[in-house]
Design goal:
It is a single chain. The protein is mainly alpha-helical and 259 residues long. Helices cover 75% and strands 3% of the residues. Helix 6 packs across helix 10. The chain is elongated, with a radius of gyration of 46 Å. The protein starts with a helix and ends with a helix.
């Protein structure tokens, strides 16, 4: 009786140990599978491909920078070459088309003695009307030839010629094309006989060049800035300061009266 009971108890004990070992195996199994999967992923990574892609991206970026610099250099070089070509063309035209003036500036100015620079618009209109006569027109053209001789910059030529014959006061009455809005605006200087004289001498000097073609535009810019010459800008600043001071004084006076 005692031995049978002992065997029965031992059998149940072995069964319990077997069950525990099975449960431990079941718990650890997913973790082991996960580790195996991660090892497989790491094994599949091709580090040579990653390194190649990085090197390729770096080299492509450097080549892109180089192409941009080459394009910028090309544009800059073309700009310089074109400008130098224009200068050479202008010099050739000047040497072929410009003759040494046959008179000095003093001689050329003699017909306009005590007249230039004209400081009144009405006086300028009378002078300009008189240029309808060929002999008067030729006198002005001779003066222009002397004034602009040796100069290759149309901006300098415009400044020297116009400043010789009319003051900024008269210049302020004109613009390059006389554009008006609702009949309000400045007179058209390019419609004057004075402008035509200047234009003919410029074309005689430069031919069909960029200097000649830009005459009207550059002249318009010169006239537009007439108010800044002969202390005009400084005077406007002084007037502005005076106006501000007067306004402040008036405001202070009004405040004192209200008190």
């Amino acid at each position: 009786m005692g031995s049978v009971t002992y065997q029965s108890t031992g059998s149940r004990s072995k069964k319990k140990k077997l069950d525990k070992s099975l449960k431990i195996k079941d718990v650890n199994s997913p973790i082991q599978d996960q580790l195996k999967n991660q090892q497989a992923i790491v094994t599949d990574i091709n580090y040579d491909d990653i390194l190649f892609d990085r090197i390729k991206a770096y080299v492509d970026g450097k080549f892109e920078e180089l192409y941009e610099k080459l394009d910028a250099f090309k544009i800059s070089t073309e700009y310089v070459v074109k400008n130098e070509a224009k200068k050479v063309k202008t010099q050739v035209l000047m040497k072929n088309g410009e003759n040494v003036p046959k008179m000095t500036k003093v001689t050329a100015m003699e017909p306009f003695k005590n007249m230039f620079p004209i400081n009144d618009k009405e006086q300028f209109l009378i002078f300009d009307k008189n240029l309808e006569k060929d002999d008067e027109k030729n006198k002005l053209k001779n003066l222009f030839r002397v004034i602009m001789y040796g100069d290759s910059d149309i901006t300098v030529i415009i400044r020297k010629t116009l400043s010789e014959i009319i003051t900024p006061t008269v210049q302020l009455s004109y613009s390059g094309t006389g554009r008006k809005v609702h009949n309000i605006g400045k007179e058209n200087f390019s419609a004057t006989h004075t402008y035509n004289c200047l234009k003919e001498v410029v074309e005689e000097k430069f031919g069909d060049s960029d200097q000649s073609k830009s005459l009207r535009v550059k002249l318009g810019s010169f006239l537009a800035n007439a108010g800044d010459r002969d202390g005009g800008r400084r005077q406007r600043a002084i007037n502005s300061d005076n106006n501000i001071q007067n306004n402040n004084n008036n405001n202070n006076k009004n405040n004192n009266n209200s008190q």
